[in-house]
Design goal:
alpha/beta, Rossmann fold, seven-stranded mixed beta sheet, 6 helices
Length: 214
Amino acid sequence: MATLNPRSLFRQVFPTARRLLVERDAKRWFINDYKRVLVIGAGHDPYRDYFLNTDFYLALDIVVTPGSTEIIADGTALPFEDSSFDCVVALEVMEHVKNPIKLIEEAYRVLSPDGHLLLSVPFIFHQHGDPSDYWRPTVQALKMATSRFVCSEIYHQGNRIHAISDLITTAFYPRSVFWPLRIVNHLIVHPFSCLSSRQSGGSAPSGFFVVASK
């Protein structure tokens, strides 16, 4: 396991509820059966240790993160042949893309038959740049965007409790004054999110996790 830098350590001790919800579902859905994995928008690449039995793992982003990024490319114009991967990961990326439908189309193209797209996107979460923030899709929008897949399961992540926590503790972003309160998120994510992975979840989730099968 790589040594944590101060920024990563801070995010682990004082995480947003959104971050914890995404990490929880990543651990649930990232399995070792995938042999060829592409991570779009990898950033500091906290996902590599989940895929220990891969034959090929590639961390892609539009900017270089030293020690993590292996290829610079646009997620809406992937430089790979059709059916190159059996798993494509795009967590908290879709909201930063001007054309998210094209991102999903490209993921579909480079996936092999029976491959999976694992995607997460916020719904009730503060606007944030990376470098820009464009979208907050609903369940219906995600169903439409992944309609080409054989099966698309859309899971609600969290509820109003998590959304309220994040709205308060990210107030005045990027210089939030309430960030110390985020430590409480360690206590509220699991007890208050037991229903968050059901497809019939509430109308105000923190976000959504999508498992789309080609």
